[in-house]
User: Fold this.
Amino acid sequence: MNRSRQAMINIFFVLLSLALSCKKGSSSSSFPPTDPCIFNGIDTCQQKSTLEVNLAGTHQTIHSFGASDAWSSKFVGNWANLSKKNQIADYLFSMDVDSSGNPKGIGLSLWRFNIGAGSYEQGDSSGIADEYRREECFQNPDGTYSWNKQQGQQWFLNAAKTRGVKYLLGFACSPPVYLTTNGKAYGTGTAQFSLSSSKFQNYADFLVQVCKHFQGTSTPLDYISPVNEPQWNWGSSNNQEGSAASNADIAGLVKILGPDLQANGVNTHIVVGEAGQITFLNNATNDGRGDQINQWFNSSSSNYLGGVAGVDNTISYHSYFTTCPAATLVTDRQAAAASAKSANSSLQLWETEFGVLGDICGSLNGYPRNTSIDYGLYVAGVIHNDLAVAGASSWQWWLGINPYNYSDGLVYINTPSGAMDPSLSKTDGLVSDSKQLWCMGNFSRFVRPGMIRVDAVLNNQTDPVYAAGDVMVSAYTDPVAKTLVLVIVNNRTSSSVISLGGLGGSATLTGSTITAYVTSSTKSLQKSTMAANKIQLDARSVTTLVANYQ
Assistant:
């Protein structure tokens, strides 16, 4: 083709692309996104919008919202200052309210317990420089067990359970160092599993003994996840426990672990996946670590796990690296949902790890620490799309407690003097919250296990890519208690007024008011009461609406 003609064609498509992106600001990759409210200097968002709900349009049943105890709880759980530990536990787990009715915490319904591989006992010889990222192992080199290990983490297990957290999940990043091929808790830096197939039974036995022990306590592990982010080639440079593994490796291990749990009378269920990013669920790779949905839940696969004892009908993924731009955020989740439905119509997707990691759309960043509403809104947008687009039934955060100068925590600890120095926060520190915490709480505190997601649409806008840059709405119901929960993520830089319209069919609200909980730059799940036909959305905020219907 003539080069000048090709150049003219290229220019045409560039201009067309720019025109479309201006018309539909949702394709922007920036956070905060370009405000779609302002048109020719007029704030169109002040015109009242209508939010329609259809209670009959049902989707997934919500299982849980969670976070993990890695890596700080080993130290924080052993702090002498009980009031500070309880403050952290309340932020994460509490369902209590203050005298004004404002929540004291975000009411997580699942807590992830990191089952260590023994790098902590190895000390500096572990090859993991950061002491926070080393973990103790319940198993001793001679094969015996010491259940007084991981005491700090066990304190938070108990704190979670006593505050009503419904589910506990044990996850392992590496087999015990006594079993690995290199004697370390990190892998070889290649795609090879750090465990030879001859040791699969040993690793399975270890996990069974851990689950069996906790089954005899007040904190039984409901779930066990034996391999974490197997697509990454974990090695000495990663500075944490972890190992690569193929789909066949994981299938071989799980086919031993499932019957082993059953034979020992252990009720813990196995959750497989922990894919490093959602695309590994449905996209094949040339190293046998992708296409996990079909590999494990399509009955024609040699790695099929659907019939293995104790394997939950669930596959998990992590939401890293697939959140920008808005089109990627949406389409990657649509593709995973379609693959899951195709392989097994009842297969549940769980998002089991996320945090603000690295450069986010060229606007936000993991470093340095930022706990502002910009970061909270970003998190809320990811949660919304994992739930409303991917159809995930569980959504879980990474670092529940963070001592670092980084943005991937919910609760933060500084040194007693206020500095960000993890080495000086091991025995005491200052506790602080974040907008990441409270924006997640707009979901976790109110969308409870067993609730069902139902259809909700604002102004008949059904394009999820557009909504990602504007206003995202999701709805959940408890059909027994007849409770309706709506979560609205408002990216607009101007406040808006909306009206709650119909609920579908003959259902109607009980009364004319609705309870609202708002997180913004100045509010953290602040409670108020609003008229159902005049709901105020603060600029750049997340609002949860709670009502009853009949």
